[in-house]
Amino acid sequence: METTQFTETKPQNSIETPFRVGSWLPSDKKILQNWMNDLIDETDKNPKDLLPVIADFKAFIENDPEAFMFFNLMFSQVPKKYKKDPSGHKQVRDYHHMLQLFNTIMTNAPEFNKTGVVGFPINAILDWSMGTEAGYAAFLNKKVNEQFKKILNEWGIFLKSADSCAVLSKDPRKGWFGKDAMDAMPNFDKEFICQPELEYHGFTSWDNFFTREFRPGQRPLASPNDDSIITNACESAPYRIAEKVNARDKFWIKAQPYSVEHMLAGDSFTSKFIGGTIYQAFLSALSYHRWHSPVSGTIVKAYTIDGTYYAEAISEGYDDAGPNDSQGYITELATRALIFIEADNPKIGLMCFMPVGMAEVSSCDITVYEGQHVKKGDQLGMFHFGGSTHCLFFGPQVKLAFDMHGQKPGLNSSNIPLKSKIATVL
To answer: Is this structure's pTM higher than 0.85?
Structure first.
């Protein structure tokens, strides 16, 4: 079996870069540690009855022998040096403590922080336990992921409610319309559809804010009448370009090569992409979270695949920022959607857009239907609660010249604007 050929630039600073990727976690590790300290203090000082969905998770852990073993072992396997932070504060002690912390965040939405959002709160709680052998096994377990899906769905209900608007305040440091946030998003009112004169800029919930849309004309479509130009499907930063991808590959090793049959979950169209090209890019916490068609064509098939939420590659060791270093690995395992498009350009033929959920960002909302014709740049769907990563698949007959806008794919790349040219069909 040949190893997939891919282009990727590893970050020069492998310790700090993952915390900066997409601003999902703070660039300053102390900010994350302080956030955890505050969450633990709040939870420990104000114990509350478990919400029904968290109580169900507790019952599952205690009644399922595998889960009971995993969730006990994962905390005991965390190295001693990680059980307290540099300030001496205790971290998550056991699964009972984990559940109490989950319980607290279920009625909170992420606050803004100028060094990066704690956009993956559950991920932060599981930070070190995810990297243990027991955590590696637990977060691949189907029944465990079914429980996390219930929790995330319940949390999603809160994030779509008016009660989640509190973080959309003008608090200068923590509010999404405060000074620090507006400094980070200086053109927000100009770029996005909103009503600045209204409270919360007219947004009705955290989810409504995070799935916001660009104002007309903000992201012009590259070459609208040229079907040889492929455009950026998401406001995203290039992560990897892989050519001659294999049907099956050892996606769990350090290089994380793509394994097409596993990525596409054995779909009947899988054979059309073996030996072809895959382009992957990741989204930012501060950016735009909807998907747009990279080509004009007809939707042939569109559906979601249940998968993992907190699995990370054991080859990466302790990935302080959760799945960021495991972006190739999770494309085979995580919750994701598949949207197959028969392009109008016969030189492209069938291609596939695959949005991939990462940690809390696991809700892939498809808004197109089979048989629908879409024009390049039309909406296909969205992530809820932020952004994640995505892939474009092309068959081996498609010859592409990629335009990465002067940068190399990798964890330290920056966003290419939505609907900009990313490739030309030769």
So the answer is: yes
